[in-house]
Structures are given as structure tokens and as C-alpha cells.
């Protein structure tokens, strides 16, 4: 039995498995998420962006604090 995968399906599969991993060279990280229209988006961001945000006090708008989430779900 032969299973065929489209080029787009293969690319999506590979990108799904490298999400959050640092690219060769160590300066950029692969990221992906669904936008508000339900379309998957991929991008590269600085590998140390988390550290930069913590140092500057900038909050990630996509992270919902667990306590707030529990309150809304109750």
C-alpha cells in the first residue's frame, strides 16, 4: 500500500514538529499558530524573545494566566 502526501501536507507536518525549536545558528525560533480567521501562520522570532520580554516587563497578549482562565471557566 502506497500513501501519498501532498507537498503542502508534508511541509505542514515538518513545520508542526519544529514549532518552538531554535533554528540552526541559535538566533531564531520557529513559531506557528492559527490566526483569528483559522489560518495557520508560521514565522521566525528571536530565540531569546522570552528573556527580552521578561527583562522589559512586556506581557505576551496571547498568554492567558491560569488563575484568570480558571475564574472565567467557573
TrEMBL record:
Domain of life: Eukaryota
InterPro entries, per database record: DYAD/AMEIOTIC1 (IPR044221), WHD_PTC1 (IPR059080)
Listed GO biological process terms: meiotic sister chromatid cohesion; reciprocal meiotic recombination
Pfam families cross-referenced by the UniProt entry: WHD_plant_repro (PF25874)
Coiled coil: none
Organism: Glycine soja
Name by which UniProt lists this protein: Protein DYAD
Domain called PTC1-like winged helix-turn-helix: residue spans: 6-46
Amino acid at each position: 500500500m502506497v500513501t501519498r502526501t501532498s507537498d503542502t501536507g508534508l511541509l505542514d507536518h515538518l513545520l508542526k514538529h519544529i514549532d518552538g525549536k531554535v533554528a540552526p545558528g541559535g538566533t531564531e525560533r520557529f513559531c506557528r499558530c492559527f490566526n483569528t480567521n483559522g489560518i495557520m501562520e508560521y514565522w521566525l522570532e528571536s530565540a531569546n524573545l522570552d528573556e527580552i520580554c521578561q527583562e522589559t516587563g512586556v506581557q505576551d497578549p496571547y498568554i492567558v494566566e491560569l488563575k484568570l482562565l480558571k475564574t472565567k471557566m467557573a
